[in-house]
Design a protein that fits this description.
By secondary structure, the chain is an alpha+beta fold. It is about 35% helix and about 25% strand.
Length: about 325
């Protein structure tokens, strides 16, 4: 309920105030400096707008043949940066040839190698954005993101991105001195998941009790095994004993967006969906199961014999 109220309040804020001036100024400086420091490329912003858009609107906004890079952010937040073919080509040419060619190469679909070559520039720009916003309120939603993986097209974004609204920094940039230009879109969740700007600690905060550190050390060394169950299948023992190598078992109830996270004894503790984190398989929790009634019934002590319910008259008569 708290998240729902927070989203409604966030939607009601004036559009012209979103992200300004911190994210506006910060992204201009960070991307231009990253291009200059990483490859010696002059990058100038012709225009930059910040808008709140839905996921469907973002998919329609993606430039044709754009390089799509998934960004990993605080608390499991996901974003994406989209580079138009002209921007990607300029980055690749500058790194491979040391200069921009006299002719603009024809647009082509970005490859995984292209993404690997521009990943460093993207991360450098995002680090610069963090540094620029270190003491500003926009850090809570625009800070802490890094390059995670390359996407071949925009279709997986419909499954990977699941926020209600996103802030889109849409920029038209000029590259080099020969008039090349292209679009760069930075898409981040509208509701910030990052920490607020750092505040200097007081002496009272620094001098924490010793027992707190000791307790934390003990708790953090405890292990808890959780199993991610995609589906279950029940078969007769005769069929199991006759299974052969290469045989296929059909999981009719399996779904990648309905995975059950369970304890070692089979108790379900959360629901999740299958995704990825920095190129590795990962689970994103979408709901947690809490059973306070079950827990309280488990811990409730047994009633004394004297307080128990009296047996029916028929049983008393029977002795």
């Amino acid at each position: 309920m708290t998240d729902v109220i927070r989203r409604k309040i966030d939607r009601a804020r004036p559009t012209q105030a979103e992200g300004a001036p911190g994210a506006d100024r910060g992204w201009r400086l960070a991307l231009a400096r990253a291009a200059r420091d990483a490859m010696g490329l002059d990058l100038e912003f012709r225009s930059l707008t910040i808008a709140r858009l839905t996921l469907a609107e973002i998919l329609d906004l993606a430039p044709d043949l754009a390089l799509l890079a998934l960004l990993d952010g605080p608390r499991g937040g996901l974003g994406v940066i989209m580079l138009a073919p002209a921007v990607t080509a300029a980055f690749i040419e500058k790194q491979t040839l040391g200069r921009l060619g006299s002719q603009v190469p024809p647009p082509r679909k970005a490859s995984r190698i292209d993404a690997a070559m521009v990943a460093g520039v993207i991360d450098r720009a995002l680090v610069g954005l963090d540094e620029t916003l270190a003491e500003e309120a926009d850090f809570s939603w625009a800070g802490g993101f890094r390059y995670a993986s390359y996407l071949e097209d925009a279709r997986p974004l419909g499954l990977l991105l699941e926020e209600d609204a996103y802030r889109v920094l849409s920029a038209e940039v000029a590259l080099g001195t020969d008039g090349r230009a292209g679009r760069v879109l930075l898409v981040l969740p509208a509701i910030g998941r990052g920490e607020a700007p750092a505040i200097p600690e007081t002496d009272a905060d620094v001098e924490a009790p010793h027992f707190t550190a000791a307790l934390s050390a003990q708790v953090m060394h405890a292990d808890c095994r959780l199993d991610a169950v995609i589906g279950r299948l029940t078969l007769p023992l005769r069929q199991i004993m006759s299974l052969q190598v290469g045989e296929t078992l059909v999981l009719t109830t399996a779904a990648l967006d309905a995975i059950s996270v369970e304890t070692i004894d089979g108790q379900r503790v959360a629901g999740a969906r299958l995704g990825q984190h920095r190129g590795m398989r990962a689970l994103k929790l979408n709901e947690a199961v809490t059973t306070p009634s079950a827990a309280s019934s488990t811990l409730r002590p047994a009633l004394p014999v004297a307080a128990a319910e009296a047996p029916p008259p028929a049983l008393r008569a029977a002795g």
